[in-house]
């Protein structure tokens, strides 16, 4: 039975019910039919006679009504308060308010993806669609699809799934990943031969991959099918694309610039002069800083300018928000995370950022620098000096003080723009709000009293639900700090007064919740707000107050599968000051740390289960607060809490964000009691960090601090000290030591029934055999790994197992290996597991480089080059360069292959070519410079191969 824990219903496949402890036993076919009928109704009342028909069909027994009540009672006993099953005449309804239904989550994610695609954010659309489609485990309502009560819903969900699959292929094409989209589109066309949309997308994808003839063939095949089956010609979109393909329209192969700018939630008001001026300033110099008081609209202006200037930057526009960082902290990890890159071996994170940015053309928006100004100024100054193609747009309450900085003070909104903003926000609160002669003077007075500051105007406009403009103007007239002169100081006092006024209007319980919200660094979902801000109240009461704060613009809500709530930084600073004055800070901080340590442990466990994707997406949104929790725990010497958090997060942070958390582990080792049960996992995390930096001596020394102790069961896969020692041995050529370790660990995991650990260790057994060139000996381990991984339903485990099997069969059965590598990549990418995604991508591209279409292989290898640049793994990048060299030799691009051969030898790496080493004079070259030159040459050669352009003549 379950108590009040979260319940998850699954209908996108066989019906199942789970809570935090695992599957719940619902019973046999009849109670399962009852539950399915209630779930199909999505919380609506289902009449009793319809439930009887669902359970027994057309011939119910005489006592069906009584038996139905018995089944209902049994189901209530299973679900209890987590999903109340209530009697509502003329039948029953199942409340899903506190539960999760995978079909509802699927539809929400598809809606979100389509909104993102409509706004041009195809990366976000792809992520949402991957998350949506991963929820499917088979046919919708599989065991009930032929039942009358479920047939319609099953058909509707199946149609939505097909549409989402087509959406995903379109997103891949829009992102320039057409080679990945082709197989999916071909399958859709085969399954739906008269559906024009996938056929049109297939034309685009084939043309974008350099196959014009195949693109034209797709059109002719569509035309023939439509003529034969329906007697019609293809519609206008297909006809127009056909003409563009014939004309070699260059727009068909254009790749959109990357970036991470958020979509605007509302229209941008005014600022035409400032927008034009800042755009011109960005053309004139490499650094522009928007300055002004909090609430002046610096961030909104920066994002608007960045969106308008996007076309100028081939490598896109990237937003790095610093508001969630602790005061005075370094900014390198935050900038790296925003760019989607990770620290490279042998480099600091700041050096990694500079190396990544140096050859690129992009706009970097660095928002909210004031509380970390020295560190932000130092990094921005280096970027300005050393990265000629990068332009920085910063926001700060004061200038950064960097050479070449153009300071652009953000002035108040003029009256006309301020009035337009007030009306826009007032209508968001009260749709029938209108500006007429009776209200215009009052609105003008409000805007004047608020010194034209956007945040203050939005707070005042939110009051239109309960007050008239005249009443708000009168209240503001009495505020003593308003209208105290001109300039930034006066405007700051005006904003503080506006926030104070809005705060004083709140009831005491809403004031208390507002103060408590200031403890969150990056926002929180309802469960976190309840657990940290007011655990003594009911969750419904907290939600009610939170909703009212959102209505009053005191809290910002962001919708999603789990809505999240946050304070704007200016309001958060005010909330912290009020919490301090009320003596609440210590209690809030302690509850914040305790909640997020518990959350980290739940997320760590979730990342090893079937819901890895959902946990990864949710936990990445909590990362700012996990960082804040560690900082607060360490500052307060709460070592138990700190080490528990550090031991829980490596799989989230290392595989998906960066290497920042390894520094946390290193910080703890000298001060944590070595007898702490989580100490070995903290040692493993710190040792893995040294391994990733390429500092093998430190990795070994650190790993040995754990002695013979192992992390407890369920610890993150990458936090085992013994594994780090084995990996160093494997890298340094001692395959036997690594194989002995992993064979022994596999036996231990098998005996203990630890399936996740068993998949991991069997994977490495297979890898060791492949490295020793005896791949066939790794086949039993790889097969067992796959069998065990499927039983876990964990995407990363399933990806690892497919990779292992592909690795040991790639020479004997390359087609099967390719399918396994592609599946491994898709599984890892869907859960944002970047490292496993990268090695699967690379092996697939390498296999195609030997056995497949050279153009497709070249595109795959290009993607891998970019991937390892972001992930920061130099070892894997050099391996990819070997594969590129081999492909170029295969297609007789001998000069390009010879250049890469020389770079490989110069870096001390093996080359696939049997050529003499080129003569070199002088000191040994810098390895990083050699790698950069090799990557640049490989990228140029692969692009020539994709486009069919001849290589330049040497000599």
Automatic annotation (TrEMBL):
Gene3D superfamilies: Tetratricopeptide repeat domain (1.25.40.10), Winged helix-like DNA-binding domain superfamily/Winged helix DNA-binding domain (1.10.10.10). GO terms for biological process: phosphorelay signal transduction system; regulation of DNA-templated transcription. InterPro entries: BTAD, HTH_77, OmpR/PhoB-type_DNA-bd, P-loop_NTPase, Sig_transdc_resp-reg_C-effctor, TPR-like_helical_dom_sf, WH-like_DNA-bd_sf. Residues 1-96 bind DNA. One of its GO terms (molecular function) is DNA binding. Residues 1-96 form the OmpR/PhoB-type domain. The keyword DNA-binding applies. The keyword Lipoprotein does not apply. It holds the Pfam family HTH_77. Keywords: DNA-binding. Belongs to the AfsR/DnrI/RedD regulatory family. PANTHER family: HTH-TYPE TRANSCRIPTIONAL REGULATOR RV0890C-RELATED, REGULATOR-RELATED. This is Predicted ATPase.
